Amino acid sequence: MTHRPAARPDTPRYLTEERLAIQELARQFTRERVRPLADELDPQQGTIPDSLRDEMAELGFFGLMIPEEHGGLGQGVFEYCLVAEELAQGWLSVASLLARGNGMGGEFTQQQCKELLPRMAAGEYLGAFALSEAEAGSDVANLSCRARQEGNEWVVHGTKMWCTYADQADYLVLFARTSPKDPAKPHRGISAFLVDKQRGTFPEGVSGTKVRKIGYHGWSTWELSFDGLRLPESMLLGEEGRGFYLALGGLEVGRAHTAARAIGLAQAALDDATEYAQTRRQFGGPLTQFQDVRFKLARMAADIEASRQLMYHVATEIDSGRRCDREAAMAKYVASEMAERVTSDAMQIHGGAGYTTDFAVERHWRDARLTRIFEGANEIQLRVISDDMLGALR
Ligand SMILES: Cc1cc2nc3c(=O)[nH]c(=O)nc-3n(C[C@H](O)[C@H](O)[C@H](O)COP(=O)(O)OP(=O)(O)OC[C@H]3O[C@@H](n4cnc5c(N)ncnc54)[C@H](O)[C@@H]3O)c2cc1C
Known about the structure:
Blueprint: H1 17-41, H2 50-58, H3 77-90, H4 92-97, H5 110-121, E1 127-130, E2 146-150, E3 153-164, E4 171-177, E5 190-196, E6 206-210, E7 221-232, E8 236-237, H6 243-249, H7 251-279, E9 281-282, E10 285-286, H8 291-319, H9 325-349, H10 361-371, H11 378-390
Parallel strand pairs: 1-4
Antiparallel strand pairs: 2-3, 3-7, 4-5, 5-8, 6-7, 9-10
Helix pairs in contact: 1-3, 3-7, 7-8, 7-9, 7-10, 8-9, 9-10, 9-11
Flavin-adenine dinucleotide (FAD) binds at residues 129, 131-132, 137-138, 162-164, 213, 216, 221, 370, 373-374, 376-377, 379-380, 383.
């Protein structure tokens, strides 16, 4: 990884001393710990070790956005995205793990905040998100998993798809239908639940099958079957029947976080390609003697910076308490499309070496591809943007 200076005399004002310090901390951690682990474990489809999770907790990463009164650092989305971008330069899954703390689950009661947030900030209570289903991905309001009340318990039946980290997490945030689907308003009657579990296993009434992925290694993604999982009444998150809104509530932050992850992947690919182009010699000199290679690198850098500035803007808007659905969708869309392009160009600069598993650029490329699909496929981002511009289609 090329070492870029953290601060320059002309550093923009919004990159305050404190933000630069957080960024530098994450940059150093990524360089020394995340990247070497990813280089070793990704080719074997290995798992992020618990020791790395502990180190991230030690640095305060899981509590970045958790208020200080609950044991966190009380920072905003801006700082969260700065850290995510750095971690993604090492390994996408580690940058995603960051989101499994930081208040994931949304609507906790005061009592749950008191009990759970300090444990989350300490990295002892990290979650997995069980929203998507095989037949309800983009159209997630169409979900079928159901929870039926029996006395003072909920009993869950159904399946979930794509639940990443379901095995290693300490809890699941599960979305299930608690009243029959109204075809005219399918988003109504969905509720969210907190499912406590032991790390490394599934609770009674839940079983899982691993999804075979082409990337996003470091953790497993699961298809889950719920066959009579019993939950105490108190595990309902927020109001019954309002779970869909809870899922939507985190979308702006999720989109900013995904933009940050895509930018991190692209930056890592650019750094690797720059280093490679400076050392690889053809026609009597380094690849950087060719204008095409120089221009490619320049275009990659310009595209990354444009996405980064949009992501900074969105993070600032969210931290200021202003709604920015359209801009957040734009940031996710622009950054992820850019990341696929830039990582592919970085692979091209590596020539044949880029198509081997000896260089990390193939990992950046595989992982960047995912950022166009998950957290709302890019076609859905375009729908959000165009609906905001033109009004929804009838
Ligand atoms: C590796 C991985 C990890 C994931 N982790 C999680 C997780 O932890 N938890 C979780 O809940 N989910 C997770 N997901 C699910 C992810 O969010 C969905 O895959 C994504 O939302 C797309 O849904 P889908 O796969 O069902 O695609 P579909 O909805 O079937 O879409 C297929 C294609 O049709 C397009 N399309 C669909 N509807 C429209 C429309 N209205 N207009 C235009 N185009 C449309 C889509 O954009 C896409 O190109 C993960 C997915 C992957 C691949």
